[in-house]
Task: structure prediction
Amino acid sequence: MLHGVSFGLRPGEVHALLGENGAGKSTLIKVITGIHQADGGEIYLNDKHVHFNDPCRPGLAGIAAIYQELSLCPDLNVAENIFLGRQPTAVGGRIDWRKLYSEADRLLISLGVHLDLKAKARQPEHRTDAKC
Result:
């Protein structure tokens, strides 16, 4: 249960949410990302009141959570797992595969990570960089 939570974020800032087990950290994140519905309070994004009634809408607004417990879809490849749930689309709503692979490659290069983007997540032998 959350009581009296208030905080603000600005673009480019990095924050950590700390507290004891049961303090409400996960609940807060789940409310912000639309997983749980708040029974009170308000969320503002760019000075506008927003209400996320499903888990897809926050992503469309640029809100995402990176959870401590990482779960990969083992039958999807590396690039597909990176963009899971937020795949770039082309006209007609189809996945833009060229952009998906290009953006995944750009992201991994920026992190200094070298992986075979088309290798299934279950295949660790396709890693080409021991630092991963």
